Each structure stands twice: as C-alpha cells, then as structure tokens.
Amino acid sequence: MSETGMHENPLVPHAKLRQIYVAMAEARALDEYVAGVQKRVKSRKGLKRRGQRLDSIRGQEACRVSTAIDLMPGDLVSDSQAGMVMHLLTGVRVSSLLKRAAELHSGKETNGVLLEGASGRLLPWIDDAGERLRMAMGAALSFKVLGKANVVVAYVRHGELEKAAWRRVLELAGKLELPVIFVVLPAGKGEREVGVTNLSAKTARWGVPGIPVDAGDAVALYRVAQESLGRTRGGDGPTLIECVAYRSGGEAGDDPLVQMRGFLLGRKVCTKAWLERAGDGLRRRIAAARQ
After folding, report:
1. What is the pLDDT of residues 203-232, one digit of tens each?
2. What is the CA radius of gyration of the chain?
3. 3-class secondary structure per residue, 23-84
4. 173: left (phi over 0), alpha (psi -120 to 50) or beta
5. Beta partners for 153?
6. What is the pTM of this model?
7. What is the mean pLDDT of residues 236-254?
8. Are strands 180-185 and 152-157 parallel, antiparallel or unpaired?
C-alpha cells in the first residue's frame, strides 16, 4: 500500500478507508453468491446464451470500488462484463439484486443481458468492446455539449482491444477532450495477458495521460481516481488508469482484500474484530435469500 506514517491522511481519512473496505467485502460476497447460483443453474440445465452469463469480478474489487465509490449522481459507468457487482456499487438496492439472483436460480428467462440498465447509471452492456467504448464516448460527448460536470467511467478488460483500436479511441477522446476515464482491468486468474503491453506508457502520444497503478492497492487506486475525476470534471479531458497485476506468487498476496486488511491493521485504522464484521449485513441478507 502506498500510505506512509501512522497519522490519519486528510486526503484519504480513516472513515473513507473503512468505507472502501466494506464495499470491497460486499462486492466479494455478492460475486461469490452469484457465481454459486450460476454454477448450480449451469449444472442443472446449462446457460448457453452469452447474455445470461455473468462473469466474476474476483480480484478486481480494488480496481472497481476505488474508481467508482465517489461517483456523483448523473455519472455513468460502462462495464467490461455483464454482472451484478457494479449495480451494487452504483446504488441498486440489495433486495433487487437478490431478487434477480433468485430469478436466475429458477431458470427464468431474462431476455438477454441480466440487469441491463437496471440502475440507470450503467450503460447497456454489449459484448463488443469497441462498440461499448463508442457508446461511452457518445455519452461523454453529450455531457460536454450540455455543459454538465458529469463523467463516464469505462471499464475495459486487458486484451479486449488491439493497439490500433486503442489508438483510434484515445486520439478521438483526447481531441474532443471528453469527460471519460478509462479503467483497464487486469486479466483474471488463469488468463494470459494479451494485447497491448504497458498501455499507459503509450497513451500520452495519443493525447490521453495514462497512469499505471497496482491492481491490488485500493488506496493508491482511490487517490489516482480522485485526481483523475477532478481533472476530468474540470474540463481537462480524459484519463486512462491501467490496473497492473503484480503477481506475488501466492494467492493470498494477490488478493486485494488481503492487501487492504493488512494496510488497515498496519495503520491501526480498525481492529481485527471490525474487519471480521465488515460486510456482515449483506452476507446476512444473502443467507436469508438462500433459505
């Protein structure tokens, strides 16, 4: 983690650190619950339609929570995959999410993308990354034309776009000074890193500043996100945040929740007892939904 010293940092106060961890713990709990539901459905009848497959965000909790936790009303999110966690982070009621999970478990038809547009803050998910980014930039252009201080945060999985496609996207976003923040997520566990390597080192020549950040460091990601949001809301155009996975060789060391717990305890932001209770409210609701 990037913080130093034992004092409370006014830029990221202890209350905000605890809020970030609770959001990460709840994201993990919901993700595991939905993954379990989907696994049971697949084993029972199979889900062959791409639109009904919900991908796990495990390992991306720091990347997503730290960049989304302080979004304002009116801001929009373009997600890299169909799922429920970003709906949770953008304010959808837990009861609504658990109801949709129950519908999935029952095998109820969902007409394609599950939870599409349910929060009003997530742009519709489509499989093609290039089309998703064009939609996101169109929304950002609308904000700019209307003189709104809102932003679009667009999540993209590493390897979804080739170098030429990234260049076209970023050159256009930079030329138009669009209020959009691109968050490049690392490849998942067991996935091979493909596509453009060291993307953030190349984006400046395409007109967009790129910032590499440890994908497991929630505090560093939060600080970079705050700086980027301030810059973009101020009319200075887009930013790209590249979440880089630094593999430690051990599963626990690569887990962003484990890293955050160690940071909080090391800075005496909370106690072990508090950490064990974090996210209990959502876990109880999930347990009740399983009954």
Report:
1. 999 999 999 999 999 999 999 999 999 999
2. 19
3. HHHHHHHHHHHHHHHHHHHHHHCCCCCHHHCCCCCCCCHHHHHHHHCCCCCCCEEECCCCCC
4. alpha
5. 77, 181
6. 0.89
7. 81
8. parallel
